[in-house]
C-alpha cells in the first residue's frame, strides 16, 4: 500500500508522489511523475 499525494513546485508543475506509509509522515516522495 502506498500513499498518493500532490506536490506543486514553485514553477507550478504538478507531481504525483507515491510515498510508502512509513515515509508519508515525513513528506518524502518515492516516485515522482510530472503530469
Description:
The protein is mainly beta and 35 residues long. It has one domain (3-34). The protein contains 1 helix and 3 strands, in the order ββαβ. It has one helix at residues 21-24, and strands at residues 3-8, 14-19, 31-34. Strands 1-2-3 form a 3-stranded antiparallel beta sheet. It is elongated, with a radius of gyration of 10 Å. The mean pLDDT is 52.
* Straight-line N-to-C gap: 22 Å
**Rg over C-alpha atoms, rounded to the nearest angstrom:** 10 Å
Strand content: over 45%
What structural class do helix, strand and pairing data support?
mainly beta
Q: Count the strands?
A: 3
Number of helices: 1
The largest sheet is: 3 strands, antiparallel
Order of helices and strands: EEHE
Helical amount: 10-25%
What strand order characterises the main sheet? 1-2-3
- Please state the overall shape, judged from the principal axes of the Cα atoms: elongated
Total domain modules: 1
Regions with little confidence, pLDDT below 50 for 5+ residues = none
Give the integer mean of the pLDDT values.
52
For this entry, give a set of tags.
single chain, 35 residues, mainly beta, 1 helix
Structure in a nutshell:
With 35 residues, this protein is mainly beta. 11% of the residues lie in helices and 46% in strands.
Amino acid at each position: 500500500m502506498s500513499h498518493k499525494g500532490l506536490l506543486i513546485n514553485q514553477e507550478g508543475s504538478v507531481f504525483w508522489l507515491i510515498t510508502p506509509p512509513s515515509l508519508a509522515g515525513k513528506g518524502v516522495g518515492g516516485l515522482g511523475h510530472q503530469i
